[in-house]
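Q: Please design a sequence for this.
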């Protein structure tokens, strides 16, 4: 019985590992702008740690893809423009800084 349970569980573990490794990485960018690094790390933290049950894993993956698409659209921008864009995005989160701290995410 134990052997058959193990054999049934093994494919599930492999599938979960494969799915986990396919997560879109939004923290790796081609930008050399500190505010953008902070913004994308914050977005990653929120997507990982937010416990809002109204967002499914699929919705989180879609948001990750949207952030990745945004990064790609910003590739042609100069550093000054990127800094302005990322800082303006970070300012939006200042209003919910207390909530971010509850889920172990920090703007600073």
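A: Design:
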């Amino acid at each position: 019985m134990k052997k058959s349970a193990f054999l049934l569980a093994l494919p599930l573990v492999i599938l979960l590992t494969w799915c986990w490794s396919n997560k879109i990485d939004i923290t790796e960018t081609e930008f050399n702008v500190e505010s953008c690094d902070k913004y994308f790390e914050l977005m990653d933290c929120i997507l990982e740690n937010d416990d809002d049950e109204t967002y499914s894993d699929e919705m989180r993956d879609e948001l990750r893809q949207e952030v990745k698409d945004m990064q790609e659209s910003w590739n042609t921008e100069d550093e000054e423009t990127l800094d302005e864009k990322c800082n303006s995005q970070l300012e939006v989160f200042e209003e919910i800084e207390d909530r971010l701290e509850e889920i172990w995410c920090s703007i600073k």
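Q: Thanks. Anything notable?
A: The two ends are 52 Å apart (CA to CA). The longest helix spans residues 2-21.
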